[in-house]
């Protein structure tokens, strides 16, 4: 009996993506080619695998039954073919794509780039900004590593809580809020700039103020921290930002940092990657360098063990970001 084991890889992609188009993008083939492959899988298994329901496709009971086993087989095959070779960083030639929000990239990017270049000169990094909408690039393999302020809900995504940040106020020297006690009422009455990549004029701070009976006066929304901070330099506007990742930018601009006169939960920071990289030694090395760069800002006391929807990565290793 002649078996095409490539069908297992295609089946794994189809079951994880839940669509022909998604599986095609992940395996870098055309949708018609993936449709033909699905037909071959159906003939080989005697099952439809994916059936259309309205505009979506859903897995059959048989597909749900074999999904974990199929993924395990593909994972084992990759591990067998890759072997247990040691990672040679001096000869590693690879491009990694990292998606961090702008303040995080500014605060931790230089240390990450320096470490990567020092240890693996042949490795290149592409730093991507967060998009305006949730996107599947991480699952499709177009993004290798990203940051998030919320745990991913998809079971095929791994994550590690690296640390936590806290909100503070940034104002110009001599701002009226620097004189006298800083109360929620005085804070709410000031003019504010929000930081939102989607242009939102409201965020969780407004909800906390509403509980106290106050409404914040939001004047403008900036797409990034780098855009927002200069807006308060020569005005009486206030911007509320995470303290750790913006610390160097705040001091560089000479802005005053004031405590937030509200009780707000800390902002967690997670590193997130796809489980396909569980046995990827080069990716595990990249995660380690990213953790080190982040912990230089967040502090070793915030180190956490890895967690995920299934099992820890052997390397040990979204609340929406602004």
Plain-language structure description:
There is one protein chain. The chain is of the alpha/beta class and 322 residues long. The chain folds into three domains: 6-82, Orthogonal Bundle (Arc Repressor Mutant, subunit A), CATH 1.10.10.10; 92-160 and 274-308, Periplasmic binding protein-like II (D-Maltodextrin-Binding Protein, domain 2); 167-259, 3-Layer(aba) Sandwich (D-Maltodextrin-Binding Protein, domain 2), CATH 3.40.190.10. The chain is 40% helix and 21% strand. The chain contains eleven helices and 13 strands. Strands 4-3-5-12-6-13 form a six-stranded mixed beta sheet. A hairpin with a 2-residue loop joins β1 and β2 (56-59). Pfam families: HTH_1, LysR_substrate. InterPro entries: LysR-type_TF, LysR_HTH_N, LysR_subst-bd, WH-like_DNA-bd_sf, WH_DNA-bd_sf. This is LysR family transcriptional regulator.
Element pattern in H and E:
HHHEEHEHEHEEEHEHEHEHEEHE
Total count of helical runs of at least 4 residues: 11
What is the makeup of the main sheet?
A: 6 strands, mixed
Cα-based radius of gyration, to the nearest Å: 24 Å
Count of beta strands: 13
Under the CATH scheme, which architecture of the largest domain would be assigned?
3-Layer(aba) Sandwich
Number of domains: 3
Low-confidence sequence ranges: 300-322
Side-by-side strand order of the widest sheet: 4-3-5-12-6-13
């Amino acid at each position: 009996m002649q078996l095409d084991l490539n069908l297992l890889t295609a089946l794994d992609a189809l079951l994880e993506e839940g669509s022909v188009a998604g599986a095609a993008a992940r395996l870098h083939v055309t949708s018609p080619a993936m449709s033909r492959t699905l037909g071959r899988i159906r003939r080989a298994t005697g099952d439809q695998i994916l059936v259309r329901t309205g505009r979506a496709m859903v897995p059959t009971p048989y597909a749900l039954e074999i999904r974990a086993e199929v993924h395990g087989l593909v994972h084992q095959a990759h591990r067998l073919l890759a072997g247990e070779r040691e990672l040679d960083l001096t000869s590693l030639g690879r491009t990694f794509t990292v998606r961090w929000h702008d303040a995080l990239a500014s605060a931790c990017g230089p240390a990450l780039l320096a470490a990567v270049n020092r240890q693996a000169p042949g490795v290149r990094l592409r730093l991507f900004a967060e998009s305006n909408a949730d996107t599947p690039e991480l699952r499709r393999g177009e993004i290798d590593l990203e940051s998030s302020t919320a745990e991913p809900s998809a079971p095929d995504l791994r994550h590690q809580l690296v640390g936590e940040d806290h909100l503070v106020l940034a104002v110009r020297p001599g701002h009226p809020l620097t004189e006298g006690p800083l109360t929620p009422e005085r804070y709410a009455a000031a003019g504010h700039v929000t930081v939102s990549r989607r242009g939102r004029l409201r965020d969780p701070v407004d909800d906390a103020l509403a509980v106290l009976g106050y409404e914040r006066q939001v004047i403008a929304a900036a797409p990034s921290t780098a855009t927002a901070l200069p807006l308060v330099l020569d005005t009486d506007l206030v911007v509320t930002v995470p303290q750790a990742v913006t610390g160097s930018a705040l001091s560089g601009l000479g802005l005053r940092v004031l405590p937030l006169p509200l009780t707000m939960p800390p902002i967690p920071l997670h590193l997130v990657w796809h489980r396909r990289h569980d046995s990827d030694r080069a990716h595990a090395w990249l995660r380690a360098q990213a953790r080190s760069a982040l912990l230089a800002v967040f502090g070793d006391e915030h180190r956490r063990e890895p967690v995920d929807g299934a099992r820890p990565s052997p390397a040990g290793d979204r609340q929406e970001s602004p």
